[in-house]
Amino acid sequence: MREVFHQSLEDVQTRLVEIADLVAVAMEGATRAFGTGDVALAEEVIENDQVIDDKAIELDELAIEILARQQPVARDLRIVVAALRVSASLERMGDIAEHIAQLTRMRFPERAIPKGLKSTFTKMGEIDVEVARTLADLLRTEDLDLVNKLSELDDQLDALHLSVFEKVLSEAWQGEAAATVDATLASRYHERFGDHALSVAKKVSYLATGTWAADIEGVDAV
Amino acid sequence: MREVFHQSLEDVQTRLVEIADLVAVAMEGATRAFGTGDVALAEEVIENDQVIDDKAIELDELAIEILARQQPVARDLRIVVAALRVSASLERMGDIAEHIAQLTRMRFPERAIPKGLKSTFTKMGEIDVEVARTLADLLRTEDLDLVNKLSELDDQLDALHLSVFEKVLSEAWQGEAAATVDATLASRYHERFGDHALSVAKKVSYLATGTWAADIEGVDAV
User: Fold this and answer.
1) CB-closest option in A94, A99, A181 to B168
2) Spatial contact of A171 and A196, defined as CB atoms under 8 Å apart
3) Average pLDDT, stretch A42-62?
4) What are B91-139's pLDDT values in tens digits?
């Protein structure tokens, strides 16, 4: 029975890694499309989000089946519950990639990336892609050093997010309302992506070390 | 054992309703503060969000304990797993109320509510409060007619959200960048609040009727 359980847990882990890899691909596509105004690529990201959603649902079903059949307790139980939460966060990260792609499509044939903020959003996009890849690595390897790395990347995203508002609210900002709306939404999306990743990282860290409350704490909502 | 389990489930339900009631109070305060520029009330909402977070964590712990001790299966198991998801959604709804309060505080002594959009945001705020109260009622009574009501309220929020963008992107919009940023964020927050409520409603509906996939489907991310 124990062996079956650990086989099941490995299956859960494999699937979480797979979803995280898909999220990384989605974010890579979304930020590239956003930077270049590539609407075909944006469409692709939007379409592929369904795959992430489906895989998250399948994983939830697997987790519920494990709870029902193998009735884990203690740490094993917490791992399964954590997997349910991680899958929800990954699904939302996929949705964020989709939102960025939608912003690109909405502005086509113009570029969604507001003038004067190109380098900032390029940087945010690069960090988000690194966040997604690091998160997949963390789920694959359970190397807790990656939690700190994700925390640092998230700090960088927060700082860039603030810098977008500073720019937009400065005297020098020449953007029209559409550019201001785009900058606000895009910056929010990029920043939230990091929050969700950090939430997953804290969950992984909790499973290794034991404190649960840290999770809700650091994670901003919406 | 069955009796103990049903006692535990009632306890879970009571706590969910309690958190939903707190979310309704938070949203009521947040929208009132946003409309009137009442920064003291905004501070109160921000402070009280910790209570919601703590209660959500306690509920999660209770759910995990029920899984461990009573090892429910089939529908009972799904109810407990759903409770974990519902508590996460309620916690996020509380965070949204906090974000609206933070927007109010950030703009003080100015009013955060952008000129020309006062009636729109008053309406969105009223609907969000109704959403929160309806959701608490749904969790209390399990009256599935309330799911349809929440779905209609969410449609109204979506329409108002779109109308904000139409206004902000119209030739007639005279707002400065700060007003555009505020309108964008506030509208997004108000609209997301409805999404989370609908996600909970679908979960409740699923438990009564049986289809799980509907959940992720209709719910927008971030």
Assistant:
1) A181
2) no
3) 97
4) 999 999 999 999 999 988 887 788 899 999 999 999 999 999 999 999 9
For position A107, what pLDDT does the model report? Answer: 85
Gyration radius (Cα) of chain A, Å: 19
Q: Which amino acid is at B184?
A: T
Could you tell me which chain B residue has the CA closest to the CA of A183? B181
Neighbours of B129 (CB within 10 A): 21
With an 8 Å Cβ cutoff, are A181 and B184 in contact?
A: yes
Beta carbons of B185 and A188 less than 8 Å apart: yes
Answer yes or no: are the C-beta atoms of A70 and A4 closer than 8 Å: yes
Residue B221 has pLDDT above 50, yes or no: no
Short-list A162, A138, A181, CA closest to A24: A138
Judged against a pLDDT cut of 80, whether residue B204 lies above it is answered with yes
Identity of residue A48: N
Helices within chain A (DSSP H only) = 2-36, 39-70, 74-107, 118-141, 145-168, 177-209, 214-218
Contacts of B161 (CB under 8 A, 6+ apart): B124, B187, B188, B190, B191
Would you call A181 an interface residue with chain B, using a CB distance cutoff of 8 Å?
Answer: yes
What length does chain A have? 222
**Tokens matching residue A44:** 């692709």
Secondary structure element (H or E) that encloses residue B56, with its range: helix B39-70
ipTM score of complex: 0.89
A66, two tokens: 């494990």
* Cβ–Cβ < 8 Å for A205, A138: no
Answer for the pair B158, B123: CB distance below 8 angstroms, yes or no.
no
Q: Which domains does chain B have, with CATH numbers?
A: 2-218 (1.20.58.220)
B98 touches chain A (CB under 8 A): yes
Cis before B109 (ω within 30):
yes
User: Tokens standing for B21?
Assistant: 């009631």
For residue B17, what pLDDT is reported?
A: 97
How far from each other are the two terminal CA atoms of chain A, in whole angstroms? 40
* Cα distances (Å, whole numbers) of residue B198 to A37, A133, B90: 33, 31, 11
- For residue B178, which residues of chain A lie inside 8 Å, CB to CB? 169
Which residue type, as a one-letter code, is found at position A40?
Answer: A
